[in-house]
Amino acid sequence: MRFRSGLRPDGLPAALSAPQRLAAVAATGLLDTDPEEAFEDLASLAARITGAGRAFVTLVDAGRSFWKSCIGVDARSLDDRQSLVRESFCYFLVGLEGEPFVINDVAADPRTRDHPSVGPMKIGAWAGYPLLSPDGHVLGSFCVIDDAARIWSPDDLATLATLARSVSAEIHLRQSLTAARAAQRVSADLAHTLQQGMLPPSLRPIPGLEVAASYTPASTSTDQNVEVGGDFYDLFHTRGLQYGAVLGDVCGKGVEAAQVTAMARYTIRADAGGTASPAELLGRLNTAMIDQHAARFLTAIYTSFRPTPGGLAGRISLAGHPPALIRRADGRIQQLGTPGTLLGILEDVRLTDVRYRLAPGDLLLLYTDGACEARPSPGIPAGHKQPLFGEPELAAALAATHGLDAAVTVKEIGAALAAHHDGWASDDTALLALRVPPGP
Fold first, then answer.
1. What separation in angstroms does the CA of 389 have from each of 51, 248, 337, 374?
2. Which of these, 50, 52, 183, 426, has the minimum number of CB atoms within 10 Å of its CB?
């Protein structure tokens, strides 16, 4: 019998050892696996419709035939469900590279009468169709075996061809799902890495000041499906005794938002040493965004400050961002900042510096709108949903932390938000707190 790709030295089809075919077989992930309902059902259907006593779903590598499904054969262990490839008719299908192989009388046909499996497996008639990879490589066979010689009817063969395509489709579907999950994991890992790159690895210590921050992604981002958010924060030294803190929120998510986030953060860092005015610095960022045709706009809040013998003195500016909050040592809550224009849309923006001071025990809180526009979980019935967690609720949550240090304050506010929306965050949320420790 002639095969398209010729023969190996052992007389079997050379196609059995083709590297690309073997890679396709391995990629199915089905070798040496247990029987599964999907394949058992298709093989059972073939045996029942054709009236054959046995039906097989077989994967074929270079040296063996592995029965993923074997109806009509008592094969329970892994060793029972495989044979040497030379002892299987399946190598005919591999050698024919896509054509079916149908024998009505195995003992009389010169192609099969001397085959070593005819007697031991009691093969009277055999009909098989190839299982094909998307690239056309033969992965194995879908076949039926009758103990006695018989004529396979056109309906029998049409049924086998259809079921073989169904088995191939099932294999393709599983491979596609596995590949999609792998790609999703890679995408999630990349998104996590990219998101972490938008935030400082740890806040630098500042003499005489407590600092703390947190970032919580929206609940629509999971470990398996992550979109990079646009919230960011940073805290850094500018010059002399001066420091800067920025917190921003880029519109949207994804790669474009990440690009604008990175540009904003590093532009602010690069220019912060050249001016003590937050409004001027945010104006420079706006110019850079316009000049570079930034794909997204953003809101931001920036403060420059320096430690003083009495605590901290600073200036703050808002660019389309919610006002900062100050929690005084006596528990009072004050809003800080004059509303200004968001960045990245208009060439001329209105930004204002506001001076402030923190005394011992005072705390300054910067936050993104995830903390003051927190919507309830969509899974909560309408009649049980709480109202929006807005600025009054955020101020109340901050007031409830009276006397706590910066780290615990940030933690408690995060817990208050989680309790309000039942652990479901409607938006990314960034918090940054600066506190002057109380005196002795």
1. 68, 20, 21, 5
2. 183
Contacts of 285 (CB under 8 A, 6+ apart): 264, 267, 268, 271, 300, 343
Give pLDDT, residue 405: 95
The C-alpha atoms of residue 244 and residue 316 are separated, in whole angstroms, by 10
Triad 331, 334, 335: Cα angle to 5°: 150
Whether the Cβ atoms of residue 232 and residue 198 lie closer than 8 Å to each other: yes
pLDDT at 195: 59
Q: What is the CA radius of gyration of the chain?
A: 35
Q: What pLDDT does residue 222 have?
A: 46
**Closest to 409 (Cα-Cα) out of 359, 365, 439, 440:** 365
Q: Give the Å distances, CA to CA, from 184 to 26, 27, 188, 192, 229.
A: 21, 18, 6, 12, 17
pTM higher than 0.70: no
Distances (CA, A) of 428 to 193, 228, 294, 372: 16, 10, 21, 11
Residues of the chain with pLDDT under 70: 186-201, 219-229, 255, 373-386, 422-427, 440
Going by C-alpha positions, the residue among 209, 141, 204, 213 that lies closest to residue 371 is 213
Q: Give the pLDDT confidence score for residue 409 in this predicted structure.
A: 97
Please state, in angstroms and rounded to a whole number, the distance separating the CA atoms of residues 274 and 319.
19
Given this model, what pLDDT does residue 423 score? 65
Alpha-carbon torsion (237, 242, 247, 253), positive or negative: negative
Residue 31 tokens read as: 């070798």
**287 touches 274 (CB < 8 A):** no
- Residue 155: exposure state from Cβ atoms within 10 A (0-12, 13-18, ≥19): exposed
- The reported pLDDT for the residue numbered 221 is 45
